[in-house]
Amino acid sequence: MKCFILDFKKGKIFHMDFLSSFADLFSNFANLDVRQVIMWVIGGVLIFLAIKKEMEPTLLLPMGFGAILVNLPGSSAAVESVISVVDGVISHSEAGPLRTLYEAGIANELFPLILFIGIGAMIDFGPILSNPKLMIFGAAAQFGIFFTFCLASIFFDLPDAASIGIIGAADGPTAIVVAQQLNSKFVGPIMVAAYSYMALVPIIQPPVIKALTTKKERMIRMPYKPANVSKATRILFPIVITVIAGLFAPSSVSLVGFLMFGNLIRECGVLDSLSETAQKVLANLITIFLGITIASQMHYEQFLALPTLLILALGLFAFIFDTAGGVIFAKILNLFLKEKINPMVGAAGISAFPMAGRIVHKLGIKEDPQNFLLMQSMGVNVSGQIASVIAGGLILNFAQYF
Amino acid sequence: MANENTTNTAVDTTSAVSEASSHTHLDFSAIDFNDPESVASVDLSGINCQACLEYYAAHAGEGESSTEGNLLSGIEFNPGNFVANLGYMGTGMLGIFIVIALIMGVTTALNKAFSGKNSDEQ
């Protein structure tokens, strides 16, 4: 249907095909796939959890929004750069902004490593420095990584299995670095699983802890005996850890190094403004980019596929077995100790910082309002952060034998 | 998405290759980027067209990495691998306990060495 328009000012008559123009407005609807709608729902759920339940909103909100953004029909947000040769003409289409961010910050592992500076600046190693024995639970709670690696090897080749196992590090940056260095084909799903489960730790851990402990065990009190920690110890600790980790697991040097560099900025006492910037501005900035860039990997064609669903399931196993490893290790230690340990503290060895520590503290208070486990669980949680990075380095060391 | 581009290009480049040019182009029509064997068999010697080489490099891994179109791609089922890889689990856990034990020892030593000096905390 043609429509004629009179332009009285110019004295001209324009005609345009209104119907086809109007129809063009809706042409993109034809490109809509039901799987894209499913991804919108998933994105919506992540946003809901972030806002309504306040579950790791810094991660889940950008991921949720990004999931919707990349799954709009014809979305240019995450398209790859393409060189094409058509009829002898070479054309080069630019990558979408999220793809550019991915290449600039994740493919080369820059974002996770920079974020580690911020995380290192946030962490107070005081609780483990005053009670180093707690560190052992951080090691035990990495069981899920290696167990899931074995489990994943049933379905995937070894580099992919190792990358999936590292989801159990409960540490997004470590998962990204390891998956990238092992050239995993499933970096996207692994990132999504790692960050999603970190946010879901408050849902995943309590049932596992309760299933593995009795009420009596959960009520065990652990008096906190703070010890003085000298400034020299605080300054030397990050340096020494970097050297030890570098000697045993050289592949972990960049991860441990950036984490400990951030902590050194915090503890040195002469770089307060840098420390504050690293903790707040730098960490927030990278988190914003990281969250939405991870979402660029949530395209429905990749996400709603069996390998992804299997990876998500294995990632959940990793978190469960991490938690179980820490709790069971504490129970085993209790067989030999006079002064019993609350086995829930072992679960805080999962790296998700500081959620895991807080959860154990809350569970302790729930059973006994006078049972304060915060300092102990935070100590274990911090050691879990170190242990998970070292575990990532060990996994990378194994790669030479794959 | 990328596969669609690849398919289109594989057809369209035939004309480009046939054109006389100072550059030696790659014959994309003979390459199936979804077939790793086809990709591996490509002879790049003598190809001096930078665009062709970049295009080839960008798409060479697609057949292996793509999970599009096949829900099961990338997945196999080898239950024996679980037992075969338990050694990694043992080594990994042993390694992490050794490193953490060492860190515990060093931390204790640091605490002893610097106890009472500039103690700053609870």
Q: Determine the number of helices of chain A (DSSP H or I, runs of at least 4 residues).
A: 21
Residue-averaged pLDDT of chain A: 88
Distance between the termini of chain A: 67 Å
Strand order of the largest sheet of chain A: 1-2
| Overall pLDDT score of chain B | 70
Write down the overall geometry of chain B. elongated
State the distance separating the first and last CA atoms of chain B.
59 Å
How does this structure look, described?
The complex is a heterodimer of chains A (402) and B (122). Chain A is mainly alpha-helical and 402 residues long. In chain A, 65% of the residues lie in helices and 5% in strands. Chain B is elongated and about 75 Å long. Chain B starts with a helix and ends in a 9-residue tail after the last helix. Chain B has 122 residues and is mainly α. The interface between A and B is large, with 73 and 64 residues.
Concise overview:
In chain A, 65% of the residues lie in helices and 5% in strands. Chain A is built from 21 helices and 4 strands.
Which features would summarize this protein structure in a list?
heterodimer, A: 402 residues, mainly alpha, two-stranded antiparallel ribbon, B: 122 residues, 6 helices, 57% helix, elongated, disordered N terminus
Topology (elements, then pairings):
The complex is a heterodimer of chains A (402) and B (122).
Chain A: E1 3-7, E2 12-16, H1 18-25, H2 34-51, H3 57-70, E3 82-86, E4 89-93, H4 97-106, H5 110-122, H6 126-130, H7 135-140, H8 143-152, H9 158-165, H10 172-181, H11 187-199, H12 201-212, H13 215-218, H14 231-248, H15 253-267, H16 272-295, H17 300-303, H18 306-334, H19 344-347, H20 355-367, H21 374-398
Antiparallel strand pairs in A: 1-2, 3-4
Helix pairs in contact in A: 2-3, 3-11, 3-16, 4-16, 5-10, 5-15, 5-16, 8-9, 8-18, 9-10, 10-11, 10-21, 11-18, 12-18, 12-20, 14-15, 15-16, 20-21
Chain B: H1 2-18, H2 36-40, H3 50-59, H4 62-65, H5 80-84, H6 86-113
